[in-house]
Amino acid sequence: MAKKVKGVKDSNNQVVATNRKARHNFAILETFEAGVALMGTEVKSLREGQASLADAFATVDDGEIWLRNLHIPEYHHGTWTNHAPRRNRKLLMHRREIDTLVGKTRDGNLTLVPLSLYFTGGKVKVELALARGKQAHDKRQDLARRDAEREVTRELGRRVKGMTS
To answer: Which family is it part of (predicted)?
Structure first.
């Protein structure tokens, strides 16, 4: 059920968690959508909007993709059947997609980073990115470029309003 995401998600997706630091620390090359194998109490906790992708990453082990270090807190109405908050969770993707990800991560010094966790049609999905880590100077260049673009749009707004300096 995995598919390549084309940048624009449906408006009916309910986003549970996003990894805001991922786009700062990594250069995103490709994005994929994958299902997540979860327990019932994990889904109930996600429906309450509780999850953290801050330290999460994905690995490929024996032809399967695993999401590691994703924090889903215990369901507060759960009993002794509650889940472990940071357990490894299996991602559901087609075999050919897994094989291409294995080849790209092995050859190109790339990593798999989760960008967001959301509901689509009642099912929990994760947006997974094939990414390359940024160096410190790349991060500084991105910040400088973003500041320059912000300043240009601010100046254009001033000129439109007739407040030239």
So the answer is: Belongs to the SmpB family.
